């Protein structure tokens, strides 16, 4: 079967599995989703005879129906992009997710690209000057960055740079006094508020990227085709860019796209630290408020985004390495 068709057919099956897992995990929580909902609705003064009707409105699921019927109702709602209504926010979950997702993608994509570019440059120089003082110092620094979780950098940066020095804001995605829109003032405010979260997320991943690039480059530098290029009298710059860098970065490409997907999960802690209104922030808020519709919606969107990132990696890697699309290699 064609490589691209085979990869594409996996997407619906994977999303179905993710949605099923989301449906099942929520029901494994202590008390189940409906018990907490019933308690909250009764505490708000909703008459007992109207509780089931309100639950059906909130979750698009009939609480008195059999489990298989609830599953079908939930899946129909997912297909129609109707994820129910948030209990704590009082608005459709799809609206909350649509409002939060761009902020999360902005943080993750920007920090991952910066992490990749900076890490690749440092790793390439390390390999070129292997064994030098620069290589030893940056290798030690890279190992240190790998061993420290990114949220430590986030907390330290927030404490010193925001609370003590007042150089950066302590929360939000933009100043509340500025009207949202494509104005220069709003864009500057967005970038200003994103500096610390992006910096913390970027620094935390530079070490592993640099060491991977260093290892790949050293391996490529020992290949015969590099020696042949040197014997042909090619310049060091051409060897470094056309021979070494290209072949050293290739194995890291799939990892880059996968990291974008996996780092989406890391935003749960990051956005909570900086009160950044992305998916992770609303997911934690939903957990604290026992807001099951919002919880399920955020979890579903994060996992589906990861699936899409892997799918893009599958498709584009075939263009970079034609052996993949031809079926000669499936090892990555």
What labels describe this entry?
0% strand, mainly alpha, globular, 332 residues, single chain
Describe the protein.
It is a single chain. By secondary structure, the protein is mainly alpha-helical. The chain has 13 helices and no strands. Helix 9 packs across helix 10 and helix 10 packs antiparallel against helix 12. The longest helix is centred in the middle third of the chain and has 38 residues. The radius of gyration is 24 Å and the shape is globular. The two termini are 19 Å apart.
Strand and helix layout:
Layout: H1 3-28, H2 32-43, H3 51-59, H4 67-79, H5 93-128, H6 133-147, H7 150-164, H8 184-221, H9 224-231, H10 236-273, H11 279-288, H12 292-320, H13 322-325
Rg is 24 Å
Oligomer: single chain
Helix content: over 70%
Residue windows where pLDDT falls under 50 for at least 5 positions: 328-332
Query: What is the H/E string?
Result: HHHHHHHHHHHHH
- Structural class from helices and strands? mainly alpha
Q: Based on CA inertia axes, which overall geometry fits?
A: globular
Strand proportion, as a percent range, falls in under 5%
């Amino acid at each position: 079967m064609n490589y691209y068709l085979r990869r594409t057919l996996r997407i619906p099956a994977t999303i179905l599995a993710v949605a099923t897992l989301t449906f099942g995990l929520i029901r494994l929580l202590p008390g189940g989703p409906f018990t907490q909902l019933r308690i909250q609705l009764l505490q708000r003064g909703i008459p007992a005879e109207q509780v089931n009707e309100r639950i059906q409105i909130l979750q698009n699921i009939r609480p008195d129906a059999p489990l298989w019927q609830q599953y079908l109702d939930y899946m129909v709602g997912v297909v129609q992009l109707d994820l129910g209504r948030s209990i704590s926010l009082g608005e459709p979950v799809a609206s909350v997710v649509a409002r939060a997702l761009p902020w999360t993608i902005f943080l993750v994509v920007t920090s991952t690209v910066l992490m990749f570019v900076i890490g690749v440059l440092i790793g390439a120089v390390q390999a070129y000057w292997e064994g030098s003082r620069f290589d030893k110092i940056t290798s030690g620094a890279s190992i240190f960055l790998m061993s420290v979780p990114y949220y430590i950098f986030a907390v330290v940066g927030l404490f010193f740079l925001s609370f003590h020095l007042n150089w950066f804001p302590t929360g939000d995605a933009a100043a509340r006094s500025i009207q949202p829109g494509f104005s220069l003032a709003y864009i500057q405010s967005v970038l200003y508020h994103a500096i610390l979260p992006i910096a913390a997320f970027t620094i935390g991943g530079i070490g592993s990227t640099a060491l991977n690039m260093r290892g790949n480059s050293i391996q490529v530098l020992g290949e015969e085709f590099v020696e042949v290029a040197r014997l042909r009298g090619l310049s060091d710059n051409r060897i470094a860019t056309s021979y070494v860098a290209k072949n050293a970065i290739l194995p890291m490409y799939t990892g880059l796209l996968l990291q974008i997907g996996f780092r989406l999960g890391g935003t749960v802690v990051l956005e909570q630290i900086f009160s950044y209104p992305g998916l992770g922030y609303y997911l934690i808020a939903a957990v604290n408020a026992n807001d099951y519709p919002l919880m399920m919606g955020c979890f579903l969107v994060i996992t589906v985004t990861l699936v899409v990132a892997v799918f893009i990696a599958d498709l584009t890697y075939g263009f970079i390495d034609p052996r993949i699309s031809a079926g000669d290699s499936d090892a990555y």
